[in-house]
Each structure stands twice: as structure tokens, then as C-alpha cells.
Design brief:
Order of helices and strands: HHHHHHHHHHHHHEEHE
Low-confidence stretches: none
Helix content: 55-70%
Number of domains: 2
Distance between the termini: 91 Å
Structural class: mainly alpha
Largest sheet: 3 strands, mixed
CATH topology of the largest domain: Glycerol uptake facilitator protein
CATH class of the largest domain: Mainly Alpha
Radius of gyration: 26 Å
Mean pLDDT: 82
Number of helices: 14
Strand content: 5-15%
Shape: elongated
Length: 337
């Protein structure tokens, strides 16, 4: 019997039947041909829209792709299959997810083939933001998974599903994987793939917990012995594997932010004797820190900057100073004498 908490989350009057939920999430049930046609059509279109939006650095376009992307359907189908302890339904959903993900990546690769070799991947915010996932991305994905599973199980909150689609990033990171692979950047592609994998596992874990807690698991296994512990253990282990790189990346991001902030402060003090000079930015790339400076004239000795940074940042990091001369030139008046 569902607990008092599950009754509050999913009142009986709003609870969808297991048959209704299965029909929505199992692409091989009911009119399978029509479901598969709709799935592949919308998936390819969402992949094209997402890739174009990523390359155009357009947030609105990427959000549009998220709304129409159907990839969350088989992912939640995996969760329902696990909750029902139905290996066949689970494997069918996994197959749709793997083939769908591969299709989106291939669309991204195709777009990348027409990009110039000088295309700056990290200069694009849509790409940069999806190649360095952190722990907070996983937290958001888990919360989104709970919201999506509850919305699917209730009759009265289906209107929130577009918001859930926007909250979870599935197709855009796969498009980024394809673009980065097409541009030969394996490291960035792996970063985007980790984001997709963490979101996928978070959705499956949250969906499995919700579908089990509200009684679908008990309803489906009346004639079968329970095996929930094994399913939960498998998903938890997979999620743990994804958490490790996310934790490492989060720690690295904080360290980079901390050290670049120190360099920014030190560089501003070093520049203070030069009137009109300013630090335009500090970037950490590989094993060097690049300090971008705009100045109307000369600079203090750069050796002084390096000396002042000793003890402020780890040893062995190279400091590179790039300058731009800021001059104001009165050119005249157009049309004047």
C-alpha cells in the first residue's frame, strides 16, 4: 500500500493507471508504428534545432529544441520498466535511448563538418556551458527527474511537463558532443557526454523511486517476486560513477575561479601606477594564466607581476600578459569642412 507521503504526492483521485502510464512511456506498446514515427521525426528535428541554436549561440533556439525533444519519454520508460521489474520493456527503452542519442550526435557531427577550422568552441557560451558539468547540474537533474515522474503519474499537473523538458538538458549536450567530435576536440566532447549521462541517470533514478513509491511497482509485480534492491543498487552504482567526475570538475572550477581572482587583484595593484590602464580579463588555459590588459602606454616590468604572484598561486604556472593600446583619436566630423 502506498504510504501517507505518497498519498499526498499522488492522491488516488489524480493517479493515472499503470496501463495509461505504460502506454505513454513504452514506445512499443499500443500503436507502436505511430509512436516510433513521431519519436524519430521529432527527435531529428529537435537535434537539428538544438545544433543550429548551439552554433548560433542562441538560448531561445536551444530552449525550443528542449521543448519538442522526445528523448525523455524512453528515459522515463527505463524508469518505469525497472519499477515494474520488466526486463523486456526496460531493454526496449534503453535501445531507443541509445539509438536516439547516437542520432543526435551524428547530426552534430554533420553540422561540424561545414564549420571553419578556426571556429572557437569555448568562445561559444552554449558549448562552453555544456562541456564542464558540475555537481549542481546533477542536483538539478535529480530534482527535475522527480518533477517529471510526478507530473507523468498525476492527471492534474501535466501542464508542467514543458517546464520539465526545459529544465533537463538532454538533446543540447548530445548536439555539443557531435559538434566537438566533428571539430576534433575529444576532451570537450567527453565533458558534454558526462553531462548527458548524469542527467539520464538522474532521471532514471528519480523516476524509478517515484514510480515505485506511488505503488506502480507493487501493482505490476503481483505475480512476480520483488527484486527492487538489485535494480536500485545498479542505478546507484552508475550514478556514483558519474558523481566522481562531476565532483572533480566542480572542485577544479572553484580552484580556477579562486586563483584567477587572486591574479586579477594582484594585476590591478601592479597596474595602478599607470593612469588609464586596466585589467580586461584573466583566463586560465591549460598550464598558463593569460592576463588581458588595456593600456594607453607602457607597462610596469612584468617580472614584478610574476614576483608578486609568488605564494598567491601554485608554482609552475606560466603568466602571459596580452596588451591592447587604448587610444582616443578625434577623427573629425562627417560632412564638415
Amino acid at each position: 500500500m502506498p504510504s501517507r507521503l505518497s498519498d499526498r504526492v499522488l492522491p488516488d483521485v489524480q493517479r493515472r493507471t499503470l496501463a495509461e502510464l505504460t502506454d505513454d512511456l513504452d514506445l512499443a506498446s499500443g500503436d507502436a508504428r505511430s509512436k516510433e514515427s513521431a519519436f524519430w521525426t521529432m527527435l531529428v528535428l529537435s537535434a537539428v534545432i538544438a545544433t543550429a541554436g548551439v552554433l548560433a549561440d542562441s538560448t531561445a533556439t536551444v530552449i525550443g529544441a528542449m521543448i519538442i525533444a522526445p528523448l525523455s519519454t524512453p528515459i522515463m520508460g527505463i524508469a518505469l520498466g525497472i519499477a515494474k521489474q520488466d526486463p523486456k520493456a526496460t531493454s526496449r527503452a534503453v535501445r531507443f535511448v541509445l539509438l536516439g542519442a547516437t542520432s543526435v550526435v551524428l547530426v552534430g557531427v554533420a553540422f561540424a563538418l561545414v564549420l571553419p577550422g578556426s571556429f572557437d568552441l569555448l568562445g561559444n557560451s552554449q558549448i562552453a556551458g555544456r562541456t564542464s558539468p558540475g555537481l549542481f547540474d546533477l542536483v538539478a537533474a535529480v530534482a527535475t527527474g522527480f518533477a517529471g515522474a510526478i507530473a507523468l503519474a498525476r492527471r492534474d499537473v501535466a501542464a508542467v511537463l514543458p517546464g520539465v523538458a526545459i529544465s533537463i538538458s538532454l538533446v543540447p549536450p548530445l548536439a555539443v558532443v557531435g559538434v566537438c567530435l566533428g571539430q576534433g576536440s575529444l576532451t570537450l566532447a567527453i565533458g558534454a557526454l558526462v553531462l548527458f549521462a548524469s542527467n539520464l541517470l538522474a532521471l532514471v533514478l528519480a523516476g524509478t523511486l517515484v514510480f515505485t513509491a506511488v505503488g506502480y511497482s507493487a501493482e505490476a509485480r503481483e505475480a512476480r517476486p520483488p527484486s527492487r534492491r538489485k535494480a536500485y543498487l545498479t542505478i546507484s552504482l552508475l550514478l556514483f560513477v558519474v558523481i566522481i567526475p562531476l565532483l572533480a570538475n566542480t572542485a577544479a572550477t572553484y580552484l580556477v575561479t579562486f586563483f584567477t581572482g587572486r591574479v586579477q587583484t594582484t594585476a590591478e595593484e601592479w597596474l595602478s601606477p599607470i593612469a588609464g590602464a586596466s585589467v580586461q580579463g584573466v583566463d586560465f588555459t591549460s598550464n598558463q594564466i593569460v592576463v588581458q590588459i588595456q593600456t594607453p602606454g607602457g607597462l610596469p616590468p612584468v617580472a614584478d607581476l610574476v614576483a608578486e604572484l609568488e605564494g598567491e598561486i601554485p608554482n609552475g604556472i606560466a603568466i602571459v600578459v596580452t596588451t591592447a593600446v587604448g587610444q582616443v583619436i578625434e577623427a573629425g566630423i562627417v560632412g564638415g569642412e
